[in-house]
Design brief:
homodimer; 3 domains; Alpha-Beta Plaits; elongated; Molybdenum Cofactor Biosythetic Enzyme, Chain A; 13 helices; 428 residues; five-stranded mixed beta sheet; Maf protein; alpha/beta
Amino acid sequence: MTTPAPRHPVAVAAILAVGSELLRHDRTDTNSLHITARLEELGIGVAWKAIVGDDRTHLTDAVRFACARADLVVLTGGLGPTDDDLTRDAVAAALGRGMTHDEPTIDAIRARFARRHLPMPDINRRQGLVIEGAVLLPNGNGTAPGQWIEDGDRIVLLLPGPPREMRPMLDAVVRGPLAGRVGRERLFRRSVRIAGRSESHAEEVLQPLYASWARGSVPVAATILAAFGLLELQLTVRHADAALADATLGAAAGSVVAAFGDDAFSSDGATMDVVVGRLLADRGLRVAFAESCTGGLVSARVSDVAGCSAYFERSVIAYSNAAKRELLGVPGEVIDLHGAVSEPVALAMASGIRERSAVDIGVGITGIAGPSGATDDKPLGTVVIAVSGPGAHQRVRTMLFPGDRQQVRTLATQSALDHLRRALLATS
Amino acid sequence: MTTPAPRHPVAVAAILAVGSELLRHDRTDTNSLHITARLEELGIGVAWKAIVGDDRTHLTDAVRFACARADLVVLTGGLGPTDDDLTRDAVAAALGRGMTHDEPTIDAIRARFARRHLPMPDINRRQGLVIEGAVLLPNGNGTAPGQWIEDGDRIVLLLPGPPREMRPMLDAVVRGPLAGRVGRERLFRRSVRIAGRSESHAEEVLQPLYASWARGSVPVAATILAAFGLLELQLTVRHADAALADATLGAAAGSVVAAFGDDAFSSDGATMDVVVGRLLADRGLRVAFAESCTGGLVSARVSDVAGCSAYFERSVIAYSNAAKRELLGVPGEVIDLHGAVSEPVALAMASGIRERSAVDIGVGITGIAGPSGATDDKPLGTVVIAVSGPGAHQRVRTMLFPGDRQQVRTLATQSALDHLRRALLATS
């Protein structure tokens, strides 16, 4: 595919996700996230995005609106064979262009059906409709080709809706024709993940760093995202020189890690489960969990990491007091004296699972996830986390988490992994 | 708050979510889902929605675009105190109206700060800016009031971005002034959830039902959503008579249940975990799980249901062969002979956890989630699920799931719960 010499670099994009089903109260558009990430890598910012139903007028108007305000308009969806698939028609109308049936495309669709020993339904001819002047983009995973349209300084891109068809087509465009149409600057990204700090406290620590990054010869921009008790600081640099951008981001990430110490648990994109897994594998230590209120969530997170069998081979979920006694050897009188949600019980769970599993580290988690079970001195959200080992080390901490049952369980899971991480860091 | 006599019922809405952070590649707008659900209950359809960054021109243009195409324009976000919070300014510009500082609102914001012993920063005066002719909507959970603006036949609604501020304000509007401005028809919804059928097979079964629902005196519309191996058929009726709509939906749901038999596991919105929990509680049976490849996910799902301690008190995660032998009594020679992922091992896990836990039903799950561990005769995605009990009953099934590690684990979890459900149904 040949593209004319660049006139005006593509810098601003708009994304339109097409399909009435995307307007349902229980559906989110995720295609635009993937498209945003890929465009940003090329230095193209997304100024605006919309979800439009299968309505010819709304869709045509939305394409016109987007074309007036962006260098690149990316549409996904609405390329199917039915009368509801209106993206081709709407773009043609918005740009004032005609459409023709492309017989080689229709032949290819017919061949795709033939491989499954099916005749091509007549309606699929619609998928061979090509907008005047469009370059077709091959679809390896479906029947509808994409279309690349130059309209003055503007590019309009039609991509299919199903992610497995859309993504490879977008990748080809990003590596190919689009790369030749952007400025020399690219966007580079790096994340630092932080545990155990509130967003406002982190902002306070970061203020002087923000200021120095903004003044640097290669400015670094930063945004904070808070989720499930963790913070993610996303650092970005827009520059033409990849090596310089990378070095700048590395230095910025380093200064964040220095400022937050052990609270900064990842600066290479690794999630908490992966970080914990690496620490265990590096130290050659094995872990087992004794879960009560988290009911399996901690073990599920740890075993979500491929290769976890090097350090994880078992856990026990001891929801009831009987299970705590029988499976973990927690003495009944300790439960009677302190209650099931207490530091002595959490410690006994941690040491119990450790000894009975013959592993290096045991983690015990007990708490009140709600909605019932709270008492005056142990409110809903009380969670006790204990780590036993390696060696004679042990630590225990009582936390109070906000929110409903689901949120308390999620925060307790996050916190249990973080406690394990800190115990491992203390193990040289 | 008084509203003028209805002229033209509000039927079509557009939603604008405001904020540059919502255009990030790792953020989705979820406010619009909640807003969509609440508006649909009033019979208002969402034709179009957009996410716009903190840019005065884009935002003003988007408001104009939305106002030209909807009876109701709902904006959320951009009501904060900073110069980046431009929703008020953009709406005022789009409607050609002025703004004034509302002193009682500013006093209320100042009082909110005073309760936390803080002076009100000067920038917060911006949150007291009221668009000419707007009615203010009180905010119980934050500083920015909402605004309700009548513009000819059109309503423009400004809501805050944080869900805990937005939701109560929207609820008040939906119950209050908006309810008086819509037609008599409301939207009523009912879901039937189905396990063990492909979407295309389900569509085939449903075709004659669709046809008869469309012909009925109260037409029922239906859409299918497929996710994680389950199908959700959503039935909707638009009608002025709530009792008639409810009876019609009940009859339609009943005919789906009749057509799918035991594969239809819920027609009242209950999820699989809740359905399984109800069956266990109703029969007075207790369950324990022996999980390998799912690593705790099944137990986590079951214990996500409040009150699960009535039927769930323990599980074992036996990731390694040693754990299967030691914790569940699976004979080493059975593992050696058949492999860890085999029907004899799954059955031994199920009966092992059942006997050792002294519960009524044991469930064993073993499989190859990947990326490694596959063999020629046991490809990646092979999962064996066994149910032992109640009594002498036992069942085992080998499944092959598509996808990566995470997807295989999710599908295996779903399937294990469904197998347990079917075993319980067979128990009268």
